[in-house]
Structures are given as structure tokens and as C-alpha cells.
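ok so I'm stuck.
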Amino acid sequence: MSVNRRELLSASALLLAGPALSLRLASARTAPAEPIVLCWNENPYGPSPAARAAVARSIAEGCRYPSDAEILDLEQAIARHEGTDPAHIVTGSGSGELLCALALLCAREGGSVIAAEPTYLELTDYAQGLGVATRFVPVDAGLRHDLPAMHAALTPATRAVYLCNPNNPTGTALPAGEIRAFIESLPLQVLAIVDEAYMDFATEADVRSVADLIDGEHPVVVLRTFSKLHGMAGMRMGYALTRPPLAQRLKQARMTTPNILAVRAARASLDDRSFLSGTRAKILASRARITAELERLKLRYAPPQGNFVFFDTGMPLALFTQRMKARGVLVGRRFPPYDSWCRITIGTEPEVKAFLAALRASVNA
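replied:
not stuck anymore, here's the structure
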């Protein structure tokens, strides 16, 4: 039997590690299993093989900043993917950084921001920290953005309206036509911020991106991310689409530049369409399994269009969370005023199987 160089090095490392490693391995064998984490809307399938290879090749260059040419190449690739011009693209360390940068622009201009309740809070939390007044408008009976009520909430001081579509945490989505009509009805001084972080998982025929509105009369910013479908949440890469003058202002409001690993991984991931398509198919299939079980258990849920499901547990969320944790599953936090509702991230197929078993046991306990 022959031994290659890698096997020889690995065996040598184990021998050199000695008793300490043996103790750690013994401890690992007896340690309790780690809980299944289904509370952060992460994509458990991770980055594509092409993205992983790009990161591996770049580790030695982690001491370097990404070059201007690399960032431009990524922006050009994103522009081709979106069917627009690179002048419309602003990259950031996750779409979260760009949301904070937009809040900073709103703070500089004064005025207030309107958002749904509940919704993703990165922009509104940052804006409030900067002294920007924020008005929250409750979602409607279908747990969707209540666009008429949001329009009624406009005042002369309103500078921006934030729409997360599909919405986090409810998972519901508005048809593109409704968003278009809403944006066209806004005063021209009001910026429409449309967060499409979960758009890649939308399946309803009329739920589509409104990125083409960036060339219209009204000021619009559309945000996308590599954190969800691309599985790069821990690497931090996102982008915004908007008209060039606003794009320049947004670039100037960023806090930093994306790191070299994220830039190269994102560039590679854009071209790994087969992996992305397969990942999406697995997540959608698992989403269907979850909603089918919720229907069987007669638990109400919001129509999901993201990589998570928001459902009514039928009990105080604190009790449900405790029961699920006891069965090895960590679920989402409370989103007021929905005190009995839970947001569950769609994990791998084995994780979903374990979740469904824990769900049945927790509901019937």
C-alpha cells in the first residue's frame, strides 16, 4: 500500500500532536451534539465550489486590499447580471453596510423614514441611532406591507420609505406592480429603498425585482446580497442599484471597502449558476415540506417567499423556543407584536427532517 505526501504529512501531524490531541478527540466523541441552528436565515449549503476555490487561492493574499481593477471587474459582472451599467452599481460589505450608509444619507438631509412593522431593522436601527425619526406602519392582515397605510403616513418631513420585499421576518412579498404604483405615487423628494435580499427565493409569478425603476423619475435604490442564495453571509458582500449621482453619494457614505476574499468569492459565485440553481431547488423543496407539515398540524403561516417560514406556534414563543431547544433545535427570536409566531430558517434536508420531528413533538407536548 502506497502513502502519498498529503497522507504522510497528516499522519505526522497526528503523531506530533500526541496525547493532547487524543484527549480532545476523546472529549469530542463524548460531547453532546451541537444544536441545529435555524434562527439566522443563513443558507446552510454555503458558498459555491467556485467561490470556495477562489477563497482558497486568495488566503495567502489576505494581507492585501482588493485592487480597484478587481472591484471594477466585480461591478461589471454584477451589471451584466442585472442588465444595467456599472455606473449604477455600488458594492458594500453586505447589503447591511449599504443600508447603514443610506441611513447616514437620510440623517445628513434631516427628515424621517417610514418602514413596515415588523421588518428588517438594520436601516431603521442605524437611522434612529443617528437621530432620524422613524415611523413604523403595521403590516396588514395578510402580514404584507400595508402600502396604503404607509402612503398615508407620509409627511413633508419624510425623506425615505423602506420596503423589504420579500419581507423579513414575515416572508411575504408584494407584487412588482403594486410596488411600482406605490413608488410612482411618492413625492419626488422621497427616496424609495427596496431591499430584495430574498428575491432569489420568490416563486409567485407576480413577485419580481423592480431594479429597472432606478432609471425612472423617482429616486430608487434596490439592494441585493450575496449572503442568501450565494451562501456568503459570513463573508459580507452586497450591492445596490441606483442612478449614478446617488450611487456616488452612497459610495462616499460607505464605512469601508469589501475584503479581498469576499470580492473574489462573489465574482466566482456569479458564474456558478448550476450550483446556485441546485441550492435554490433544495431550499424550495424543503420550504414546501415545512409548509405542508404546518398545514397538517393546522398551524397558520405567512405565505413564504424567502429561505424561511414565519408561522404561529399556537403558544407563547418563549415556551415554544424552550421546547425546541430541548430537542436540539434553535429557532428564531420574537418579533413584536407577534408573540406566538416563530421565524424558522430552512436548513439542509436532514436539518429540516429533525426540525419537523421536533415541531411535532413540541406542538403535541
